[in-house]
């Protein structure tokens, strides 16, 4: 097959074209879109096809159709260059992944802010953190059980070893969840989250002295602003309460052990982040329920509920429901994020989440703060960010 070009003119014999389709060369041979096509004869007796040119073409295949008067001929299949071609699928995939992670982060932060607002509203009107924590876990567990039963979500495939490895994680998660709720029932939401910004310091100290791990010097140096900022914020807190302070500190320690147990026990497990947190909620609910009954009990709950209804009205029901649902959703999205990003990126996202919670709670609840208190919070959050960078 011969292609000739007008302005400028060129020709390609079918045999030459077939050679260019050899494995060693680029399979996409550039020709041109034809406005007209005619069959001519060359001096040597070979047939040629004259093609006038307007748009570039790319040859996709060269096929031998058979013989005509004892002479074989080939047909070239081509497509126009102005048709959409995915020249860089890797870049498009990376861009889609960034959009997905950005959506996860935005959803995670928004859900967390909403949870903390409703959680504080409930605790102000109904100061029973053990029951509040139990209702959060119960609501999330019920939501996932219904999702599995109706096949909205695929149920995880688990075995005894899975639940055995999950048990210490669930114990630490239960302690951390209750301790944080107790803290928020006694102090401002912003103060609880400022203290919880010190979690990296607990992580490094526990890993160093209990597990024997060592870290680069920048990691240890990043603990100085974390500890100093938290201390400064605590000293200058106008509504300081020791139970609230200790609850936040215990929560930090418990979540560090939760992360350690999770890394050790879940290696090689093929459970998605969403289902993993659902299983964690179910086991934590089973652990927490008897302790909640023992510490507070139905009589205290009934009396407190009557008072909350008289003070707030039916809105307290909506607050409890919203607090419980949003608690499960924000944790579920955070675990789903872990499936898509590195622990470092997750740590940075967690730091930014605390900033959004601190600022929003101060605005919504009109929390009185002093400039020194704001400075301490800023130093602690900055230290957390530096810790994330040093761990890279």
UniProtKB/TrEMBL annotation:
Q: Which UniProt keywords apply?
A: Chloroplast, Membrane, Plastid, Transit peptide, Transmembrane, Transmembrane helix, Transport
Regarding the membrane, this protein is recorded as: Multi-pass membrane protein
The UniProt transmembrane annotation reads 101-118, 130-149, 242-261, 273-292
NCBIfam families, per the entry? tpt
Q: Which residues form a coiled coil?
A: none
Question: Can you name the source organism?
Answer: Stephania yunnanensis
Q: Where does it localize?
A: Plastid, Chloroplast membrane
Q: Which GO terms describe its cellular component?
A: chloroplast membrane
User: Transmembrane helix: is it a keyword of this entry?
Assistant: yes
This chain's protein is named Sugar phosphate transporter domain-containing protein
């Amino acid at each position: 097959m011969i292609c000739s070009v007008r302005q400028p003119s060129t020709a390609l014999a079918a045999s030459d074209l077939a050679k260019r389709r050899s494995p060693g060369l680029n399979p996409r041979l550039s020709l041109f879109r034809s406005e007209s096509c005619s069959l001519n004869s060359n001096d040597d007796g070979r047939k040629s096809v004259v093609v006038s040119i307007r748009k570039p073409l790319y040859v996709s295949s060269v096929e031998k159709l058979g013989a005509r008067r004892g002479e074989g001929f080939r047909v070239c299949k081509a497509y126009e260059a102005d048709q959409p071609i995915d020249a860089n699928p890797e870049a498009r995939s990376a861009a889609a992944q960034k959009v997905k992670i950005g959506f996860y982060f935005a959803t995670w932060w928004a859900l967390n802010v909403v949870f903390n607002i409703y959680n504080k509203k409930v605790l102000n009107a109904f100061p029973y953190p053990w029951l509040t924590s139990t209702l959060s876990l119960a609501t999330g567990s019920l939501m996932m059980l219904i999702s599995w039963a109706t096949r909205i979500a695929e149920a995880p495939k688990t075995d005894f070893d899975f639940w055995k490895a999950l048990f210490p994680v669930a114990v630490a998660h239960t302690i951390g969840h209750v301790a944080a709720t107790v803290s928020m029932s006694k102090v401002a939401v912003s103060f609880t989250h400022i203290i919880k910004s010190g979690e990296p310091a607990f992580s490094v100290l526990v890993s160093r002295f209990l597990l024997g791990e060592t870290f680069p010097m920048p990691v240890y140096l990043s603990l100085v602003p974390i500890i100093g900022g938290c201390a400064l914020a605590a000293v200058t807190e106008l509504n300081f309460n020791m139970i609230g302070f200790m609850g936040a500190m215990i929560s930090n320690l418990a979540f560090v052990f939760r992360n350690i147990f999770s890394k050790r026990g879940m290696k090689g497990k093929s459970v998605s982040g969403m289902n993993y947190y659902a299983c964690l909620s179910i086991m934590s609910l089973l652990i927490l329920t008897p302790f909640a009954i023992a510490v507070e009990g139905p009589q205290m709950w009934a009396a407190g509920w009557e008072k909350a209804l008289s003070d707030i009205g039916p809105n307290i029901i909506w607050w409890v429901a919203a607090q419980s649902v949003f608690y499960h959703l924000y944790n579920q999205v955070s675990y789903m994020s872990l499936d898509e990003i590195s622990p470092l990126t997750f740590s940075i996202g967690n730091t930014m989440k605390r900033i959004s919670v601190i600022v929003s709670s101060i605005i919504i609840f009109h929390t009185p703060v002093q400039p020194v208190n704001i400075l301490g919070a800023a130093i602690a959050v900055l230290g957390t960010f530096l810790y994330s960078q040093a761990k890279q």
